[in-house]
Every structure is written in C-alpha cells, then in structure tokens.
TrEMBL record:
Official protein name in the record: Oxygen tolerance
Keywords, sorted A to Z: Membrane, Signal, Transmembrane, Transmembrane helix
Upper classification of the organism: Bacteria, Pseudomonadati, Bacteroidota, Flavobacteriia, Flavobacteriales
Transmembrane segments: 456-473
InterPro entries to which the protein is assigned, alphabetical: BatD
Signal sequence region: 1-25
Superkingdom per UniProt: Bacteria
Pfam families the UniProt entry points to: BatD
UniProt entry tagged with the keyword Transmembrane: yes
Keyword Membrane: yes
Amino acid sequence: MVKIKGILKYSLALLFLLSSSMVMAQDNSGVTFEMKLSKPKLGLNERLRVDFVMNRDGDNFNPPDFEGFRVIMGPSQSISSSWINGVRSYSKSYSYTLAPTAKGKFTIKQASISIGGETYKSLAKEVEVTAAVDKPSDQMTADDIADENLHLVAEISKTNPYLNEAITVVYKLYVSPNISVSNYQPLDNPTYNNFWSQDIKVSALSAQNGTYKGKPYRYVTLKRVVLYPQKSGKLDIEPLSLDVTVDVPTGRRDFFGSRMYAQTNKTVSAGSRTINVKPLPVENQPANFNGAVGEFNFNVSTSKTSLNATESLQATVEVSGKGNLKLFKLPEPELPSALEVYEPEFTEGVRTTLSGMQGKISNQYTIVPAFRGKYPIAPMSFSYFNPSTEKYTTLTSDEIIINVIEGPLNGLNTPSPNVANSKQAVIASGTKFNFIKLTPNLSDKTVSYFFRSTKFYLWLLLPLLLIPLAIIFRKKRDAIAGDVAGNKVRKANKLARKYLSAAKKELGNKDSFYVALERALHNYLKAKLKIETSEFSKDKIAVLLDKKGIEESTITNFISLLQSCEAARYSPFSDVQMQADYEKASEVISLMDKQL
C-alpha cells in the first residue's frame, strides 16, 4: 500500500512537470489555445456559447465533460486565414451551445489539443446559473442587446459645491465587448442654466479599458465641461443625448465562418443630474468681499516711485491663482487728488482646465502727478473664500509712497521767500541838511505806473472773485465723488465704448474679436441694468430688459449676440459673420439706448 502511494506521488509530480513544460512551450512558441464564454452569468432558461480558439492548426481535440450543462449543438468548427501586409493571420475554433441543467456555480474544465507535437490545455472557467429570466438572450432583439450593453454616463466631480466653486462634468460612452459602435451624433446638448460654463476640448476619441457596474467595458470620453454655479440651492444639469449606430452579433456565421452582425440605432442619454450648491457663509464675511472663490495671491506694484511732475507711472493691481478669475471685480486704488488717474487697462491671462480657471487678471492704471511732493498710495485689501479650508482670507498690500522730485508746489501752500531786514540807522553829519522838494513839477506822460492803476485794483480783487467759484467747483467735485452709482455707470459706458472699438480692431481674428465683443456687451449691461457679472444669465438678462420696456426683437438680437460669443469658443466663424455681428452689436446698443 505504501509503495502504491509513493508511485502515485511520483506520477503527480511528473504530471505537474509535464504541464509546466506545456505552458512554457506555449509561451515560447507563440501558440495560443484559450476558452471563450459568451457570458459569465446566465439564467436557467438561457443558452451559453463556448468557443475553444487557437492560432495554429491542431489535432486530437479533447473537450471537457461540461458538467451541469447539456450540449444542444456542437462541436462546430470554423477556420479563418488571411494575409495582411505579408503577415499571415490564422484562427481555428471549436464551438458548443450549452443549456444549463440546474442553478448554481459550475466550472467548465480544461480542454486539450495537440499542436506541433505539443499538448496545450485551456484554462478552466466558472459560470453562474441563476433562476430563469423574463426574456432569454436567444429571444432578445438587437435593440434589447444594445440597451444592455451601451451606456452614456455623466461623471460629476462634486455634487455639493459652494457657490462659484468649479465642478467638472465628463461624459463617457461605455460599450460592452459584446457589441461595437460604428457612428454617433449628438441630439440634445445641455444648456447649463444658472452656471458659468466652459467646454474643454477633447483632442482625440480614443477607447480605453474600464468597468461599468463591475463588468469589463470599453469607454470613450465624448465631452468635458467645467461649471461654476451662479446660484445656491438645488440646480439641475440637463442630460446629453446621442443617436448611436450599434452593430450587434447575431450568433450566425457566413460562408467563410465570420460572425454576422445586425445593425440598429439607439438613443442613449446621460440622464438629468441634480447638485446641491451651498451658499457662501455669511459669518466672518469681510466687508470688501466681492465674490472671489478659490485660492489667490494679491499684488499691487508701481513701475517707479520717484519721478518729476507731469511724468507718468503705471500702477498695477493683480490677482493670480486658481478660482473664478473671470467672475469678480478687482479692487480699485484710492489715490490723492493731486495725482491724475486714467481709466485702467484690463489684462486677462486665464486658461480653463478640468480643475477650473487658473492664471491671473490685472488692471493697469496710468498716473500723472501735477505737483511736487510725496503722495501715498494707501494699502489695498482683497478678500476671497477658500472652499478647501471653508474660510475667508484677506490679503493686504503695502503702502506705496510716490515721490515727485521736481515740479510746482501745490497751490496756496507755496511758501513766501524770506526777506532780510536791510534797514540802516541814519547818521547826521553836522548841521548840513539839504531839503528835498516833496512835490516836484516833473512829469512824463509817456510813463504809466502799475501801482494804484485800474489793473492794480482788478488784480487785487481777483482772488476775492475766485473764492465763490472755488467753492462751487469743490461742491460739484464732492457731489460727483459721492455719486458711487453714477461713477460706476460712467465708467461702464467708457469701457463699453472702449471694448466695442477694440472689437472692431480685431475683425478677422475670431478669438480676440469675440472676447472683446463679449466684454463690451457685458459692460454695457453693467451701465444700463446695474447688475454685477456674477448675476449674468441669458434668461435673467431677457427678463430685466423686458421690464425696462425693451422691444422683444431687440432683446432677441442682444441674446443672440451673447450666444455667438459663447459659440465662438468651439465653432469656426467666418470674417463675414464677424462683420455682421459687429454691425448687429452697434445697431442693438443704439436701439436699446433709444428705448431706455
């Protein structure tokens, strides 16, 4: 008995060595022999297809016993061979159609075949048989199979962001290995109401391996978009819908053994998604907070700090970092009245990626001092909300002193020159005095004296006449300075004219033209409707214009201009279209001015 056990152990060890040598032979020779299942899980009333596929011709094929299944059809043999670019491709398969005999988990064991004098074995695979299904796979139509194996998914980076915090939506089309997609076209693109949106271009549609509900799939990224919610509460993201042409295998083969497919068109949708936007906290909110959300740096600098009067310098107010850079206003400097300040030149260097906006924005002010002296530029503050820390942060710049070296002094503060006391004592020289005639009869009609003349008295009274004028001028200047809303309106009007002029210069350059045109339209709205950029949405603009009594056709043209500016980011526009949009903008602004 002991001898038999020893022989058995020796036989098992020898068998293990032989199987290892077979695997090594398979790897070294490039021969493949594998078992493929139509599905890993099926109902009791469904059918299972098992294919044993090899890339070299072989003999002495030995199938497994298919425990737990009944062979309905098979083995059927198919062979395909082709030459592509001088390289031979060969495939041979043995196929079986099986019906399960009971519920449970069953193992389809190894099959073996002899190829080139070597024996190769397939790997065993497990199959799960469940209760009978309502619609067996052999009764399913091409549409049914496409429904089960094709899915469009919208993946959202964050479902509970803060107001003005960036979120990303990525649309992926998942395709099962059981089917193939030959074409697709969008049916309905989401409009993203109550969001600021920016599409991120998908450079190439490349398929990647992934999983969907635990099963292996191939997926393609179709669309990527970055959203900044402009309203708190529950907001809906509209679905993306596609019409997809699907090729579904029929289970039949043609004369040459190739699998036959049925083609069908399916409409898939990513489904409507709802996110909950949290409002920004009111507690500890700085008084100068202007809607900036993200993580930023703040800097105030000047091109020079020493100069002469009537020379110019540039003061730059800059915010850089990551966040909603296009959706808030930069703080404005408070400068002494002796410094003449011109309208700022706005510069934007912002790029939008899947993580949101990043870059910098700045206002550059040209400043010209009129008088000699030292003038301080007071420290400026900039506040933002950081969603990562859920706290407000305030950044403050340093005070900057502008030293005007040469130039006139400031007005009435001009000091009078010091006059030395030159009086001297009179020394008598004895009793010799010569009397001076006080009223001589000398006269020269050609000489006129300024003292006690008409001009003398006019100049003497002139400062008294200028005092009321100075008081009136001061009151008017204070009234203008105190009219904050009026100053904003005048500034926005100037900017609108400036950017409309800039748009005209950029005709022919699509990106620059539509950026300038959009700025002009937005600044015009600020001037007329007194709303901030963060409140912009086409629906709200239409409602506000309607309340102002603007005609419906004018509103429609204005909204279409905004839509053209948005569409220009990802669509080609001709020079003719740009010229038409510019003329349309001029006409619409003129009509709105008259109607308002």
